[in-house]
Amino acid sequence: MHTALLFMSGMDITVILAVALLLFGGKKMPELARGLGSGIKEFKDASSGVVVPIADDNRKSPAVTTDATPVMPVAQAKVHGEN
């Protein structure tokens, strides 16, 4: 979506704004822009809130280590202990 906005010229934006003005009228445009701005702000706040807990979980999880001594399961330990 961002690449489409990069290729828009000033004339394209002017035509889009003129059509929006004709469709919604001068009184409704500021209200629509305010609603769009608050919606974008809420989306950014919500998406940044999701990234932080994921990053915190990655820092809290223990690092994967390879242990040199093999661990024997409990069932096998009892069998070997009885012999």
Spans where pLDDT lies below 50 across 5 or more residues: none
Number of helices: 4
- Radius of gyration of CA atoms, rounded to a whole number: 30 Å
Share in helix: over 70%
Provide mean pLDDT, rounded. Answer: 74
Q: How much strand?
A: under 5%
Structural class: mainly alpha
What is the terminal separation in angstroms? 70 Å
Q: Please write the string of helix (H) and strand (E) elements.
A: HHHH
Instruction: Please give the number of β-strands.
Output: 0
Largest beta-sheet details:
none
Shape: elongated
Which descriptors apply to this entry?
0% strand, single chain, 83 residues, elongated, mainly alpha
What does this 3D model show about the protein?
The model has no long low-confidence stretch (mean pLDDT 74). The chain has a domain at 27-57. It has four helices and no strands. By secondary structure, it is mostly helical. It has helices at residues 2-6, 10-24, 28-60, 74-82.
Summarize it.
The protein has 83 residues and is mostly helical. The protein has helices spanning 2-6, 10-24, 28-60, 74-82. The chain has a domain at 27-57.
Question: What's the structural blueprint in terms of helices and strands?
Answer:
Elements: H1 2-6, H2 10-24, H3 28-60, H4 74-82
